[in-house]
Each structure stands twice: as structure tokens, then as C-alpha cells.
Amino acid sequence: MAEQNNKNNNVQDLNQLLKVRREKLANLQAEGKDPFQITKYDVTHHSMDIKNNFDELEGTEVSIAGRMMSKRVMGKASFCNIQDLPGNIQCYVARDSVGEEPYAAFKKMDIGDIVGLKGKVFRTKAGEMSIHADEIILLSKSLQILPEKYHGLTNTDLRYRQRYTDLIMNADVKETFIKRSKIIKEIRNFLDGRDFMEVETPMLVSNAGGAAARPFNTHYNALDEDVKLRISLELYLKRLIVGGLERVYEIGRVFRNEGVDTRHNPEFTLMELYQAYTDYYGMMELTESMFRYLAEKVCGTTTITYGEHEIDLGKPFERLTMIEAVKKYSGVDFDEIADTEAAKKIADEKGVHYEKRHTKGDILNLFFEEFVEDNLIQPVFIMDHPIEISPLTKKKPDKEGYVERFELFINGWEMCNAYSELNDPIDQRERFAEQEKQFAQGNDEANHTDEDFLNALEIGMPPTGGIGYGIDRLVMLLTNSPAIRDVLLFPTMKTRD
Predict the structure, then answer these.
(1) Which of 169, 214, 217, 304 lies at a CB distance of 3.0 to 4.6 Å from 153, suitable for a disulfide?
(2) What average pLDDT does range 354-383 have in this prediction?
(3) 156-160, 269-273, 327-331, 380-384 — which is least confidently predicted?
(4) Distance of CA 352 to the CA centre of its chain
(5) Can you tell me the mean pLDDT for 195-221?
(6) How far, in Å, CA of 392 to CA of 275, rounded?
(7) Which pLDDT band, with edges at 50, 70 and 90, does 236 fall under?
(8) CB of 121 within 8 A of CB of 91?
(9) Cβ atoms of 402 and 396 closer than 8 Å
(10) How many CA atoms lie within 13 A of 132 on its CB side?
(11) Minimal CA–CA distance to 36: which of 121, 142, 171?
């Protein structure tokens, strides 16, 4: 009963505080001082500009703007802290400097209000770099209450739903998203240095192909056609290779109608690139070089920390075939397994669950997922996948039943997926037909035949290397973030009533 009374009192106290803020706004508006009528404020410096260049700026007048995060009123003189994009800075506000009426207005301002401040850069007696205000004005009134400063916003669900508050209260969160933007910028810089062209392809498609995933379905009213949200970028980018654009890439959202966990979100950022006249070995070189480049540019080192692991992106990445990796970690050599029946028998012995439709190649992949993935902490290219799980990949000429494909694993995660692209339209049609059979047998993630893509292949596609990178997972790695929701500004959340 006492606990319930405390909750009721807290709600009443909060409602009273919110009421007071609205009354303050109403009074300002009645006096003709509505902050929401202000359209601009000239900013000359940011907080960290001032701190990083203090010796040059000391005694100079500067103009800053940001959110008031604390305020300490002491009679005729007060201190406040103003937070902007790169950081925050202390400001000294004295009645004799700003004037009696502006000082009275300052004392009525609330934590969370957005203000503009002009003044001279100086250092306090305590040695703190500060601004001595000559002017402070209210630019926007905050009508809500920010979380308590020293505890921040710690409710994870609320942080994801109210990312705007999360960014205000948690400096490390803001830094993660600044770093995310830098990662994408540096990816573009790296690819620009290799003469790649950035392109855009459709998000609403009649045939959502290029990956093993369930699509979202929607409807074009104007065309009266059912369409899907894309699950991949692959098939349109390959059309551009056919068209003679020899090096293309796209960074964009794709949508997969599947579960949510620490590494998966139904909509996520994918980058795919395709390069004519190379193969999956060319994609390995590009990937290793790009990951090393990004670590140096974004983290300042090729040795990064993720959780409890120190990961070395500076030395050559290990290369193992899927068969070698499964043999290393499970003791089972699939080169010695004759057929599907034998594969199912060994799966039964090892406790690996499979479905009736699965073949030897599918079961090899299940063994890899069961015994290998979690062990791959340092960078390793897992090469030469079974054809059953690779419907868009060129066959290995020297190993029947396998294709020229690799996945890069770091920290037990798949970081990218690459092929020597299948450019034989006859073989591709047969692969699509096999995928259609799998769909009929209950595999709702199987690809469907794409006649226009087959037509493009019949026009002729050169030998091509292609690869797809999960950008969100890459950002997780380079920012030491434990969950994908920590690197998505607005992750998918179940709607509240």
C-alpha cells in the first residue's frame, strides 16, 4: 500500500512539474517572448572547438547553442552547462554581465531547455574552461522532464523507443552513431579509391530474390499489383554488370520477415558490390583490405576489442574450406561421407537436427553452424560451400557439388557473403528450378525464378565477383556494441497500446 502511495505521489509531482513548464511557456507567449517564434541563431563555435583550442580562444567572444543540462543559481551569479553535438561546456552567467531582466529570465529556464549564449572564453579559479556570458536567450522550451542526470536513461526498452532522449543523456550512445556515420563515409571513400560506382536499385519488387529469407508483402494501389520489399540487392546489381557498369555497389535497407535477436533486425542496412573480371579470391583481397582500412580510420588501430576478445585485423586472415572447418571442430570429414544417407546417419550420431528434404550439402552446413561458428573469433574466410545452399554461385570446376563462395567470420559472426557469380543462364535456370522444388516442399526462404534476370544473363554477364556486407554487424564490431539495436537509431519494436 505504501509503495502504491509513493507511485501516486511521484505521478502527481511529475504532473505538477510539467504543468509549471507549460505555465512558463504561456507566460512567455503572453509577454510576446515566445521562444518557438525564433527562427535562427548564429553559432560560431562548438563546445569542443573551444576546449581543444582554448589557448587561442581565451578572451575571444564566441557564440554557442545547445541544451542546458545543469544549472546552479547563486544569487547574482550562476553556472550552467550547455551540451551540443560534440560535447558540453560550462558557462558563467552573471546579472551584471547579461542585465537584470535577462538574468531573471535565465533563472526561470529549466533543465532541457535549448539556449543560445554569447560570451568570452575564460578559465575559472577552479581551472575549468568556461564561457563568461554576455547574452543568453531561450531558443526552445522543453515541456518534458529529462531523466535524472547521474543515473541517465538506463531502461533499455525506453532507450530504444526514445532514441532522442537516449542521445541526450548518454554520451557513449551519441559517439556510437557518430562513429557509424564515419564507418559508412570511409566505406565510400575506400570504394571510390577502387573506382566503384554507387547506384540505387528498387526496394519494391515483384520477385524478392538474392537471399534465403521470407519477404514482406505489400500492394501497389495504382498498379493493382502485389509486390514485395526487397530482401537483397543482388539481382539488380548484376543486371548493371550485364549493362557494362563494371564496378557497382549499393548501401541500402533490405527487409526480411524473420525474428529479432541481438544480431538480427527485420530491416537492416546491407551493402553489396559487384566487380567484373574477378572472382571470389578478388573479393577476399578487397574485404581484408577494407576491414583493415576501416579499423585504422575509425578505431585508430587494427587491433580492436570486442567484449572479452582482442581481435587482430592487421595480420592476414585465415582461410579454411567449410569441410576443413567442420573436420577441425567436429572431427567429421565430409569428404569421406559418400551421400545423403550417410550424412544423415552421422548427423543422428552427433545429435544434429535436420529436415527430411535436406541433402548431404545441407547437413554439412548444419554441422558448420552447430560445431564451428562460435569458435571463429579471429578473422577467417570459410570457403567452398555446398551447392545446395548457394543457388547463385559458380561451381568449383575441380570439386563436384561445391561452389566458389566464402563467408568471413569474426567473433563467431558471419560478416559477409561472397561468390564467384554464376553467369551461366542455363545453369542458373536449373538452380532456380531446384529452388522452386524446395519451396514446394516447405522451404519458404527458397528463391523463385526471375525471368528478367535470366534474360539479362542470356544477354551476357562477364566473370564477376560479388559480395554482401551486413553494415549493422560491422558497426557492432567496430564500436564494441553488444546488440544490433545499439547501432540502429530506430530499431524495430513491438508497438505499445
Answers:
(1) 169
(2) 97
(3) 156-160
(4) 33
(5) 93
(6) 15
(7) very high
(8) no
(9) yes
(10) 13
(11) 142
The three cell numbers of residue 189 are 571513400
What Å distances lie between residue 1 and 11, 14, 219, CA to CA?
A: 16, 20, 53
**CATH number assigned to the domain with residue range 13-146, chosen from the 4 options 3.40.1390.20, 3.30.70.100, 3.30.1540.20, 2.40.50.140:** 2.40.50.140
Q: Are 383 and 320 in contact (CB under 8 A)?
A: yes
Checking if the pLDDT of 1 tops 70, the result is no
| Distance separating alpha carbons of residues 413 and 252, to the nearest angstrom | 21
Residue 147: the pLDDT is: 87
Taking alpha carbons only, the member of 37, 109, 40, 99 closest to residue 72 is: 109
Q: Which three cell numbers stand for residue 496?
A: 505499445
Q: How far apart are CA 171 and CA 67, in angstroms?
A: 13
Domain boundaries, the chain: 13-146, 169-317+379-486
Architecture of domain 169-317+379-486: 2-Layer Sandwich (3.30)
pLDDT of residue 445: 76
Q: Strand pairing partners for 225?
A: 220
**Residue-wise burial string across 209-241, b where 16 or more C-beta atoms lie within 10 A, e elsewhere:** bbbbbebeeeeeeeeeeebbbbbbbbbbbbbbb
CA–CA distance from 348 to each of 21, 187, 321, 340, 355 (Å)?
A: 67, 44, 23, 12, 12
Tens digits of per-residue pLDDT, 34-48?
A: 999 999 999 999 999
Kindly write down the DSSP assignment for every residue of 59-115, as one continuous string: T-EEEEEEEEEEEEEETTEEEEEEE-SS-EEEEEEEHHHH-HHHHHHHHH--TT-EE
Q: 158 vs 81, 169, 179, CA distance in Å?
A: 25, 12, 22
Residue 387 pLDDT > 80: yes
pTM above 0.70, yes or no: yes
Cell numbers linked to 226 = 502485389
